[in-house]
Amino acid sequence: MSNINLLPWRDAVRAGQKKQFLIWLTLACVVTVAVMLAVNSWVHQQIARQQERNQLLQTETARLDLVLGEIRHIKTQRAQLLERMLLIESFQQRRNLSVRLFNQLPELVPPGVYLSSVNVAGSSIDVVGKTEAYTRVASMIRQIEDSGWLTEPRVSSIFASDTRPIALSQFSMLFRIADATAGGTR
């Protein structure tokens, strides 16, 4: 037994094991590369799909921005229309104010009081005139308070005038319209 040389058989087994190892190593490398390519392909598909979603979101966002711009434009138009409607409504409420004022002014002004100017500014009425006696102006104030649609009569100034042959006192009076709708309802 001492003559048997086992080295070539061991070399053959080692060569077979080495060959088998290289085959398994090559196979593992191929499988690894295939898995890496598959994962890389899957990641690129996910990226492409997400980019498509992002593009869809961007186009929808741009479309919604246009819609929001139109809505803002419509809201400003609506506000302008409401403003115009309120203006027209206030004009309609106040359109009969002058007629009503001039119709009732003779009832409010007692004999002996002479008006020289009547100015209407908003809901305020400024009256300038002359009177024979202060009591007539006081009577006019009471009639304005009793009218129901005119309020807050105040005499701004009253003073004696030098006009002859009849001595008349000049006065200035300010009063208000009771409410905005009173001018057109009665």
From TrEMBL:
Keywords: Membrane, Transmembrane, Transmembrane helix
Keyword Transmembrane helix belongs to the record: yes
InterPro entries listed in its UniProt record: Extracell_DNA_Util/SecSys_Comp, PilN
TM region positions: 21-43
Biological process terms in GO annotation: type IV pilus assembly; type IV pilus-dependent motility
Pfam families: PilN
Descriptive protein name: Fimbrial assembly protein
Organism: Zobellella denitrificans
